[in-house]
Design goal:
- This protein has 550 residues and is of the alpha+beta class.
- The chain has 18 helices and 17 strands.
- α1 crosses α13.
């Protein structure tokens, strides 16, 4: 009786939704691997990012990784490699700058399930009667929830609920992945989905996953529920059950029953793959030995050899990658949906150069029992140096800009600490060091000293001026303002450097013979100062000059 092992019984579905013009989601599901990616980057690059990432992981869909956690290590390494390919894509095509993608993936190996996650796509597990979310959203609102600043029920309506804190893309050379491993049991179900499913209430999602036994029908129902809810975003789901399958259900049996795959250089494909190959690409995929073309026992002339030399054709690497990928997909049962399916069907795989395409083709063949394929690196040393030089120039420019910003902020703050002003603090007049402003949560001033003059002892117009802050260019000016307040609280004190007539009587001032109540600027409700404490103004005014002059 054949040995049995745990495999995935799966269904993958994707829909563009009711508002989006294109599908930026991608997903792959097979017997051992399931992965969902939700691309971002607008018109230019969301679909490219998700398709490139998913297609770079499909070769992991096999068992036999061993019991030492190798599956988790390989999954993490391949996702990091996919991230570096996205950076290379952006370096080649600057229009793709800013593109990125989420990734949520599971890799089944025996009774262990390797799990990798970054972004806000989600993974749920139903084991027995328990349905729970196994992933953590890497979003701004989730951080607020973790810090206790937001309730979970408020997250769905928060204006920044779609702001991501971690993604794959050209923004981070080494993104932080959530990596873990789970023990699996036969009969448990996993749901992987993009954030488009979030528009369906969680209890309805749980009920659907729990009640519909067939993975395909369950996935179809979840997509239909999302469309009924308005589907403002792309939506992609994978429903995967852990079931026992025969060992010869694995891809090894499929490989044994069909002729061995041809080497990557020959680009021989199955009939179904060849039918999907563009004519222009297929013409380049003929035997590189050129025997049919030359008819002379494989000996080529110089011109003929030049035409068949792989490095001279920058499109050939991408073509070989497409053909090997199609052969890989044809070798095992799977479901590929979204942008990745469109790229694989059309042959327009995201590729930065024949070197990258060849590396992808080589990775797809590493786990197959085939003769070793030598992949020539067509990138010259000069190209490598130029790319490294551009990268260093960008890093240096970014560092210079960052230093300039920090230096400017520091100089600005240092200047504020040379200023002083007189204001109110704890109902007393105080001298402050700095300026009476704030920079967000940062105050640009601090209390230098507090006087014994209380705010209640001052007229109302003086209280208003002190609450706003009376600026001084130096500490001595601030001390003069305080001294003026102490001796003559009714006076106007623009600053000691201002006109002396506003704070003290002018030497040429001539007191009026009979100052009247109407000519004295004393706020109502305050006792009239005695003649010995009051200096008559040289130019009497019916209102206080401080109120009109400030």
């Amino acid at each position: 009786m054949p040995d049995t092992q745990l495999i995935l019984r799966y269904a993958a579905r994707s829909d563009v939704g009711r508002l989006r013009a294109k599908n930026d989601d991608s997903a792959y599901a097979g017997r051992h691997l399931a992965v969902v990616a939700d691309g971002m980057g607008g018109h230019a690059g969301g679909d490219v990012a998700s398709a490139s990432t998913v297609l770079d992981l499909v070769h992991l869909d096999h068992g036999g990784y061993g019991d030492s956690g190798e599956a988790g290590t390989v999954l993490a390494d391949e996702i990091q490699t996919a991230n570096s390919l996205l950076s290379e894509l952006v370096a080649t095509n600057p229009k793709l700058a800013g593109m990125g993608t989420t990734v949520t993936a599971i890799l089944l190996n025996g009774t262990k399930l390797a799990f990798a996650h970054i972004g806000d796509s989600r993974a749920y597990r139903m084991r027995g009667n328990k349905f729970e979310q196994m992933s953590v959203d890497h979003t701004f609102v989730q951080r607020l929830i973790n810090e206790g600043r937001l309730r979970p029920e408020e997250a769905e309506t928060h204006p920044h609920k779609n702001v991501l804190m971690r993604v794959l893309g050209d923004v981070d050379a080494s993104p932080e992945l959530d990596l873990t491993s789970f023990d699996v049991e036969e009969g448990e179900r996993w749901l992987l989905c993009s954030d488009g499913l979030n528009y369906v209430p969680h209890p309805i999602v749980e009920r659907t996953v729990r009640e519909i036994e067939d993975p395909g029908e369950c996935a179809d129902k979840l997509i239909a529920l999302t469309l009924a809810a308005g589907a403002p975003d792309n939506v992609t789901v994978i429903v995967a059950d852990i079931v026992a399958g025969k060992a010869d259900d694995d891809e090894s049996a499929v490989d044994d029953e069909k002729p061995p795959a041809a080497p990557a250089a020959a680009a021989t494909v199955t009939a179904s793959a060849a039918a999907r190959t563009p004519v222009t690409s297929a013409s380049r995929a003929e035997s590189p030995t050129g025997k049919e073309a030359s008819g002379e026992d494989g000996e080529l002339g110089e011109d003929e050899a030049a035409r068949h030399e792989v490095p001279t054709d920058p499109n050939l690497g991408a073509h070989l990658s497409a053909e090997v990928l199609r052969s890989e997909l044809d070798s095992r049962p799977h479901e590929l949906v979204g942008a990745a399916a469109a790229a694989a069907e059309s042959g327009s795989l995201p590729s930065v150069a024949s070197r990258t395409a060849a590396r992808r083709a080589a990775a797809l063949l590493t786990h197959r029992a085939e003769p070793e394929v030598e992949v020539e690196d067509t990138e010259t040393e000069a190209d490598t140096m130029r790319r490294q030089l551009r990268r260093w120039v960008r890093l240096i420019l970014a560092a210079v800009v960052a230093v300039a910003i920090v230096l400017g902020l520091w100089l600005g703050y240092a200047w504020t600490q040379t200023r002083y002003y007189v204001g109110a603090y704890n109902n007393h007049v105080a001298i402050f060091n700095g300026v009476s402003q704030t920079l967000g949560p940062i105050s640009l001033s601090k209390v230098y000293t507090t006087t014994d003059i209380t705010m209640n002892s001052l007229p109302d117009f003086q209280k208003q001026r002190l609450q706003a802050g009376v600026p001084a260019t130096s500490l001595s000016e601030a001390q003069d303002i305080v001294a003026n307040l102490r001796t003559n609280p009714e006076s106007c004190f623009n600053s000691p450097s201002g006109s002396p007539s506003s704070a003290t009587p002018s030497a040429s001032a001539t007191p009026s013979a009979k100052p009247s109540a109407s000519a004295t600027a004393i706020p109502p409700g305050h006792p009239s100062p005695s003649p010995s404490a009051t200096h008559p103004s040289s130019s009497p005014s019916p209102t206080n000059p401080c109120l009109g002059g400030q």
